[in-house]
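Retro notes (design track)

What went well: tokenization of the new backbones is finally stable.
What didn't: we kept losing track of which sequence belonged to which structure.
Fix going forward: every design gets posted as structure first, then sequence, in one message. First example under the new rule, 368 residues:
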């Protein structure tokens, strides 16, 4: 399985001809590698396709320290540029992802250079146009948990090693499942009220549709959820390695693509990482012959992870998705005795093993 490096398709479609060997990046003229020249041409195209001048964009992104002042005035240009910022955001992310994984940018120096330039231009442009609500949205989302009498820590905190996905005891689990629709509605209302919510939710690892589907899986299988704590609290070494690999790959992706489902190249990479992780876990438990974690629990875990994967991945890798996320791998037939006779033990569900807000939600938030 794997998304092949699709990096060159977008770059080829938008690069412009011309000698850019001594063009300025960030207002400083310098000799550049082929990789850096390609990034500059692509960045220029991103600006031009949004009817913006790249040097003027550098000017407002750097607070006037680089580039050149717009003839129409900085305030007027900024107002016009911020309207098309989402288009420029996605384009900047796409061309950086494309080049980072292409044959043009093989050296670490080149890759770090285009990452730094992308952050300096597109990241700073995003900050320049940011809505004030962006800075309060995470706090407001956490308040949604308080509104329905749930602990805000159940929204996976990136600083936590472990967290309870739907509760630590039967009463908390009951309250979560009883109020999950109200909770999702509250989060949705907060998101709709903030124009920058897509970026913030992505940084938090929240996709509302996946959140609701994941909650449904867990609330439908509360007995299995409780019974599976012991094996997910301390997963076998092979499963730990699966998470370490996913974490490393996702951290690298988020450095380049803060909204990893927003453009084609990033989406391919994102889906590949997520599907490979589910497959890695499945294989690890199977090799272990389910000695410490029964099929009923691993099957529910697989179902949960498949529901948390964005549905776009079904289109990107239809055959792989259908194979990994087949009902046969969910082992529905083994769950009856758990769900019909739930235990009452208290539990703590590990963040790395079970989270409603996407498998990469404990990745350190980093923006371009």
């Amino acid at each position: 399985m794997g998304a092949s490096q699709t990096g060159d398709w977008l770059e080829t479609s938008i690069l412009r001809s011309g000698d850019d060997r001594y063009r300025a990046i960030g207002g400083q003229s310098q000799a550049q590698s082929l990789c850096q020249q390609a990034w500059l041409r692509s960045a220029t195209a991103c600006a031009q396709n949004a009817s913006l001048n790249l040097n003027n964009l550098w000017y407002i992104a750097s607070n006037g320290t680089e580039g050149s002042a717009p003839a129409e005035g900085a305030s007027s240009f900024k107002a016009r540029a911020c309207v098309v910022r989402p288009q420029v955001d996605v384009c900047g992310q796409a061309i950086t992802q494309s080049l980072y994984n292409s044959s043009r940018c093989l050296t670490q120096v080149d890759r770090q250079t285009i990452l730094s330039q992308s952050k300096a231009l597109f990241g700073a442009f995003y900050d320049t146009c940011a809505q004030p609500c962006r800075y309060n949205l995470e706090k407001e989302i956490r308040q949604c948990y308080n509104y329905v009498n749930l602990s805000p820590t159940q929204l996976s905190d990136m600083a936590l090693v472990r967290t309870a996905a739907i509760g630590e005891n039967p009463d908390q689990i009951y309250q979560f499942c009883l109020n999950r629709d109200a909770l999702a509605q509250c989060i949705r209302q907060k998101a709709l009220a903030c124009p920058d919510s897509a970026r913030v939710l992505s940084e938090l690892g929240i996709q509302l549709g996946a959140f609701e589907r994941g909650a449904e899986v867990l609330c439908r299988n509360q007995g299995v959820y409780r019974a599976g704590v012991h094996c997910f609290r301390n997963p076998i070494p092979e499963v730990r390695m699966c998470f370490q690999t996913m974490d490393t790959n996702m951290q690298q992706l988020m450095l380049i693509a803060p909204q990893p489902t927003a453009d084609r190249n990033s989406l391919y990479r994102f889906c590949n990482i997520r599907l490979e992780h589910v497959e890695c876990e499945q294989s690890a438990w199977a090799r272990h012959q389910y000695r410490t974690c029964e099929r009923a629990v691993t099957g529910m875990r697989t179902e949960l992870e498949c529901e948390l994967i964005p549905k776009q991945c079904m289109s990107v890798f239809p055959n792989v998705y259908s194979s990994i996320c087949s009902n046969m791998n969910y082992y529905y037939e083994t769950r009856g005795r758990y769900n019909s006779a739930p235990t009452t033990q208290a539990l703590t569900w590990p963040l790395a093993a079970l989270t409603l807000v996407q498998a990469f939600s404990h990745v350190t938030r980093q923006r371009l």
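Added context from the reviewer: The chain has a mean pLDDT of 80.
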